[in-house]
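> call design_seq(struct)
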């Protein structure tokens, strides 16, 4: 069984709200965040920078992580990378922030 799952926007938001000790990570670039702000409670960790790799080494692998980006591709890549490094509970948002805005409405 894979340690990461792809979730629809509605399920992503529900599971995030119901998960104790969850860490919400926004993987977008600064430029993307300026266009559409981060979700409430999110930590910014740009997947496209070298800082992403460094940050993984500092993170608790036992905590549950919820990942999102702009369109969903980087979140899937980040989830896979985290799983290979031993993270055990990872969920990522299918379709990214755009999907939340489209299916649920603007949040944050």
């Amino acid at each position: 069984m894979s340690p990461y799952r792809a979730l629809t926007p509605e399920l992503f938001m529900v599971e995030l709200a119901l998960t104790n000790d969850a860490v919400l990570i926004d993987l977008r670039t600064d430029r993307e965040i300026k266009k559409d702000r981060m979700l409430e409670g999110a930590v910014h960790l740009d997947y496209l920078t070298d800082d992403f790799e460094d940050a993984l080494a500092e993170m608790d692998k036992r905590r549950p992580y919820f990942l999102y980006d702009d369109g969903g591709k980087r979140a899937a890549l980040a989830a896979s990378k985290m799983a290979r490094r031993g993270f055990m509970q990872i969920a990522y948002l299918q379709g990214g922030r755009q999907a939340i805005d489209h299916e649920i409405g603007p949040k944050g």
